[in-house]
Design a protein that fits this description.
The chain contains twelve helices and ten strands. Bound molecules: flavin-adenine dinucleotide. The site of flavin-adenine dinucleotide (FAD) has 22 residues, from strand 1 and helix 12.
Length: 392
């Protein structure tokens, strides 16, 4: 197996980016996130600062106004955001959702949208795939797009469409050929770039979902929404492939957030275990307290290697599916185990909001479910890597 050079993750250039991200995050301390969490409010100031700092446009090529950096740089940015105690979920999709447009859009579509996305004037951070009845079985989605003259008419419903209220554009997956009329089961779905600013309130309804974390996620209802045919990305009927090939980048970037979280929890646990004195000695002197933290550190370092390995493969244009999936699984488990230890290490104080742990604990749990749940990663590895029979 060819091993990408993961030392780039700690190169001088990337170290400078990390430092700049940490400086930005220092302006958004725990109190800022706590207040937002309590009010279930969007971190508009943080997102603005990330936009102005140029951190959300790193993956947009320079000819469209971005900084044209690679996924390794994007991974480092999100890792530092989370290691600083902040949360990138409010804006991380602005980094990578444009990948579908970049890879499958026409030159005219790219010219029309990418410069605005790069500057932050246009927000493309809504991604409508999941539906209430289909769940992970994407081929069973029911939202339809029917051609009518120069438009498509969209009807149906999405669920868990995050950031839809804070986005101008949405990447939408809809069925253009009925499931029983396609030659190949993976065909018949198409991708659209929906300009939500142009939609009437009757045609596009966005309903926030209250959740255990402050995530700005929603249900979206389409009723005869007209989308110009020129907003279809790529060929009609080939949409599933376009969506799938953007998912490796997404998984690697979410894994980056998880290793950032793991580092944050481990630092927090270590500091507390050193300082907290019970029975006249620091609690961290007890192996029962040390060992879980040490184990978390081992898991974190292993996951971190996998995340940068996956990013290196992606940047080299090599198939990255295996490591993108495995890195996401390993990182989401490392962060969750570190979160659990951190809560336990803090005893009762772990439950007090001012320590930040309970908020991060809730937030990091998401990543074993979204954007893909652990079982589905395991079935990917079983079927595609280990060549076991397909289970569903
Ligand atoms: C906060 C949040 C934000 C999200 N943001 C977005 C977004 O922006 N855009 C978007 O499109 N989606 C989004 N999602 C949806 C997310 O991707 C899905 O929740 C996730 O993929 C799991 O799908 P599901 O909830 O439908 O679970 P289901 O498919 O109903 O599965 C339920 C459980 O059964 C397991 N399971 C199902 N089938 C199998 C099988 N064959 N073998 C073994 N186990 C199986 C799953 O692993 C899971 O644990 C978000 C979800 C959340 C919670």
């Amino acid at each position: 197996m060819h091993l990408p050079d993961i030392s780039k993750a700690d190169s001088d250039d990337i170290a400078a980016i990390r430092e700049a991200v940490r400086a930005l995050c220092a302006r958004f301390p725990g109190e800022y996130w706590r207040d937002l969490d309590r009010d279930k409010a969007y971190p508009a100031d943080f997102v603005q600062a990330m936009t102005e700092g140029g951190f959300l446009s790193v993956l947009v090529p320079t000819e469209y106004g971005g900084s044209g950096l690679d996924l390794t740089a994007a991974v480092a940015i999100l890792e530092e955001v989370h290691a600083s105690g902040c949360n990138g979920a409010a804006c991380h999709a602005q980094m990578y959702t444009m990948g579908t447009l970049l890879r499958h859009g026409t030159e005219a579509q790219k010219q029309a949208y990418l410069p605005g996305i790069a500057s932050g004037d246009l927000r493309l951070q809504a991604f409508g795939v999941t539906e209430p009845t289909a769940g992970t079985d994407t081929l069973s989605i029911r939202t339809t797009a029917v051609r009518d003259g120069d438009d498509y008419v969209i009807n149906g419903q999405k669920v868990w469409t995050s950031r839809a209220e804070y986005s101008d554009l949405m990447i939408l997956l809809a069925r253009t050929t009925p499931k029983d009329k396609v030659e190949k089961r993976t065909e018949g779905l198409s991708v659209f770039l929906v300009d939500m600013r142009e939609a009437s309130k009757e045609a596009l309804k966005i309903q926030p979902i209250e959740t255990m974390i402050n995530h700005a996620t929603t249900e979206v209802f389409f009723e005869n929404l007209r989308v110009p045919a020129e907003n279809r990305l790529g060929e009609e009927g080939k949409g599933l492939r376009y969506i799938l090939d953007g998912m490796n980048a997404e998984r690697i970037l979410i894994a980056a957030e998880c290793i950032g979280d793991a580092r944050w929890f481990i630092d927090k646990s270590t500091n507390y275990a050193r300082d907290r004195v019970v029975f006249n000695r620091p609690i961290g002197q007890n192996q029962g307290v040390q060992f879980p933290i040490a184990r978390n550190y081992v898991e974190y370092q292993a996951a971190r290697l996998m995340v940068y390995h996956a990013a290196g493969q992606f940047d080299a244009g090599e198939p990255a599916g295996e490591f993108a999936n495995m890195a996401k699984l390993a990182a989401s488990e490392a962060s969750w185990h570190a979160a659990d230890t951190c809560l336990q290490t803090h005893g009762g104080f772990g439950f007090a909001s001012e320590y930040e742990i309970e908020r991060k604990f809730r937030e990091t749990r998401l990543y074993q479910v979204a954007p893909i749940s652990t079982n589905l990663i395991l079935s990917y590895v079983a079927e595609h890597v280990l060549k076991l029979p397909r289970s569903y």
